[in-house]
């Protein structure tokens, strides 16, 4: 985020870390210079912006009010810059989005590649984050949009587009189960399995399916990382339980097979394209949003 005042830059960072020394290290600016700028503004306002505590600095009520306005000014300045770039015919521009790890590779990079081909002057910032961090950064104005798992519209954030992603058994194309149209978990559990671990949603689904079927999965490996699980499936040591989102690229390339589960009590997850309700997006961000919308539509209507 670009700030248009040296004081605002110092003030926001000190508020974030709660220490002039730490802010000095982050910004690579002398602590005395940061302190001098803050003291000057406190003198002009006639009010302290920070409480000086033995453990560090804490915002006063006046400081909290100023921080809120400072963030708002930065957002407005970012938007102004984007609009000025729009007037230049999008020779330059910037868009930032957050994405959950499962969709951070092929899904996102293919869209960025197409954007770059059409608009080489637009820089795109990709941030791989968890749901909570994506939501927070959208609200704070650090991201134009985010792709989240099981999102809900709120006072601040709206779900712009979404698609559902059910779980199923994933195998190599040469596996004995690969030709099945549907499968019960109990039929798959006897085969060697690579079991997902928390925080992956599939880990909770494995537990639910084991309890419901009275069947224990034949575990040969476990992992909390989707790409490792897919690599192990490809190596031939076992099968796994994943969602269509996790193996979207592999299904399209026919390097892995996805077999839907017959159990109907498992609800599919939802992947949502989310934006800030009150934010006016720049032209560059709108172009990126439109491309994500088109990709979501393709998934809904294969």
Automatic annotation (TrEMBL):
<dbReference type="InterPro" id="IPR050950">
    <property type="entry name" value="HTH-type_LysR_regulators"/>
</dbReference>
<dbReference type="InterPro" id="IPR036390">
    <property type="entry name" value="WH_DNA-bd_sf"/>
</dbReference>
<dbReference type="InterPro" id="IPR000847">
    <property type="entry name" value="LysR_HTH_N"/>
</dbReference>
<dbReference type="InterPro" id="IPR005119">
    <property type="entry name" value="LysR_subst-bd"/>
</dbReference>
<comment type="similarity">
    <text>Belongs to the LysR transcriptional regulatory family.</text>
</comment>
<protein>
    <submittedName>
        <fullName>HTH-type transcriptional activator CmpR</fullName>
    </submittedName>
</protein>
<dbReference type="Pfam" id="PF00126">
    <property type="entry name" value="HTH_1"/>
</dbReference>
<keyword id="KW-0805">Transcription regulation</keyword>
<keyword id="KW-0238">DNA-binding</keyword>
<dbReference type="GO" id="GO:0003700">
    <property type="term" value="F:DNA-binding transcription factor activity"/>
</dbReference>
<dbReference type="Pfam" id="PF03466">
    <property type="entry name" value="LysR_substrate"/>
</dbReference>
<dbReference type="GO" id="GO:0003677">
    <property type="term" value="F:DNA binding"/>
</dbReference>
<feature type="domain" description="HTH lysR-type">
    <location>
        <begin position="8"/>
        <end position="60"/>
    </location>
</feature>
<keyword id="KW-0804">Transcription</keyword>
<dbReference type="GO" id="GO:0005829">
    <property type="term" value="C:cytosol"/>
</dbReference>
<dbReference type="InterPro" id="IPR036388">
    <property type="entry name" value="WH-like_DNA-bd_sf"/>
</dbReference>
């Amino acid at each position: 985020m670009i700030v248009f005042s040296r004081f605002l830059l110092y003030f926001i960072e000190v508020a974030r870390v709660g220490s002039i020394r730490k802010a000095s290290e982050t910004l690579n600016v002398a602590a005395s210079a940061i302190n001098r700028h803050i003291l000057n503004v406190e003198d002009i306002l006639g009010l302290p912006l920070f409480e000086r505590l033995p453990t560090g600095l804490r915002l006063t009520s006046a400081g909290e009010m100023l921080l809120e306005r400072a963030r708002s000014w930065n957002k407005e300045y970012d938007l102004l810059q984007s609009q000025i770039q729009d007037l230049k015919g999008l020779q330059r521009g910037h868009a930032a989005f957050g994405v959950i790890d499962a969709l951070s590779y092929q899904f996102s990079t293919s869209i960025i590649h197409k954007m770059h081909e059409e608009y080489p002057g637009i820089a795109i910032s990709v941030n791989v984050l968890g749901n909570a961090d994506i939501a927070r950064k959208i609200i704070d104005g650090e991201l134009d949009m985010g792709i989240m798992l099981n999102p809900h519209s709120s006072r601040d954030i709206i779900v712009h587009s979404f698609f559902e992603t059910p779980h199923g058994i994933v195998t190599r194309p040469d596996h004995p189960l690969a030709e099945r149209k549907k499968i019960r978990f109990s039929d798959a559990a006897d085969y060697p399995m690579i079991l997902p671990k928390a925080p992956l949603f599939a880990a909770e689904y494995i537990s639910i399916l084991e309890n419901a079927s009275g069947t224990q999965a034949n575990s040969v490996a476990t992992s909390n990382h989707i790409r490792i699980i897919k690599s192990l499936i490809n190596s031939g040591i076992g099968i796994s339980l994943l969602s269509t989102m996790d193996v979207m690229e592999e299904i399209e390339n026919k390097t892995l097979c996805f077999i839907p589960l017959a159990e109907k009590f498992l609800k599919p997850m939802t992947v949502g394209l989310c934006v800030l309700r009150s934010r006016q997006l720049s032209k560059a961000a709108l172009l990126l949003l439109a491309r994500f919308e088109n990709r979501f539509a393709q998934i809904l209507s294969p």
